[in-house]
Structure formats: C-alpha cells, structure tokens
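Now for one record:
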Amino acid sequence: MSQKTAALFLNGEPPNELAMHHAMRLNPFFFICTDGAYYYTNALKIIPNVVIGDMDSLSEQPNEIEVIYIADQETTDFEKALQYLVDNDFQKVAVLGSTGGQNDHFLGNLHAAFKFKEFLEIIFFDQSQYFFLANYKQKLSTNIGKIISLFPFPEAVGITLKGFEYGLDNEDLSIHERVGTRNIAKSENPEISFKLGDLWVFVEY
C-alpha cells in the first residue's frame, strides 16, 4: 500500500529543475506551502492545495486556495505545515525550498524535522542533493561515484557501511568528535545500519 505523500514548499531558495525532478518521483498528490513560498510556486506552475503560516510574508491573500492562518509565534511555519500533514494522516513529505538564505533557518528546519521524525517520513530536496534522517537499516538508491555524507545528530552508535569507498564496521560518529562527510558510493545500492542515535544522510543527485 502506497504512503500518503505530500510536497511542501518553504520560503528558502526556490527549487531548481533537478530538485523538482527528484521530489516529484515520490508522486505527491497534495501540495502545501508556507506563506512566503506561495509566490514562487506560481513560477513553478504549481497551485497549492493549502497555504499555511502566520502570513507575515503574504501581502495579498490568494483566491480559491485554502489559507490557514496560525498566529502562534512559538512554532515556525514549517512546523505548522508538518503538524497539518500529521493531523491529516500523511505519512511522507517531500520538502523543497528548505535551504538558501540565512543558515539559522536551515538549522531550524533540521530541528523541526527531528521533532516530527516519529510521525512523518521527511525527505528534503535542494539544488544538488537530497537528505533525510536515516532508519536503523537503510538501503540507498544512487549512482556509483556520487558523494554521500553522514552527519550524526548529535551521535550515532554502531554504524556499519556497505558499498561505500570508506567503510565503517560497528563504529560511532559524534558531532563532538567524528562525522562522516564526503564519502563516495561504490555501489548503486549502498547500505547503512546503526544501533542507536540519529543520523542525517545527504546524497548527491
């Protein structure tokens, strides 16, 4: 049974053609954007089903589109959108426009995704790579020679890598000591497994 999948557009750098191509391979049937992202969805010829947020970046309310105003300043517009998807029984979301601009926003987006990891499978797509929080056993689909980076959040224990140029065998990564950036795929289906913790995986297109 296929997962109920949405595409979510944030007010960062608008996705390029490559990001859109990979995100749309997830076959989202529902499109949601935060208020600031509404303007560039028009350029992408996408009509969102819902615009959500505190509306601080939307000067004129669109017609014939559901607009959900949430004044709460304790949550970001990204969190508001994720909560909407959870409340409406979505299982997977492709997130676009999460990078670019100010880096604190990007780090905030990672934190928001971490908070919702038990409720949604969240996959980010930017201009050159996709990234996600890995399952304890994860098989990737990529091309040989592509760069794959592993970033513990803040640590991941007992990592084993297969099909990578630089392998790991039951080893630990920690943001305080050792991370795993700029590895290289030696297989079209490299495998990651680990025992405890959280691990961001960044895969070059």
Q: What stands out?
A: The CA atoms of residues 30 and 200 lie 25 Å apart. The two ends are 27 Å apart (CA to CA).
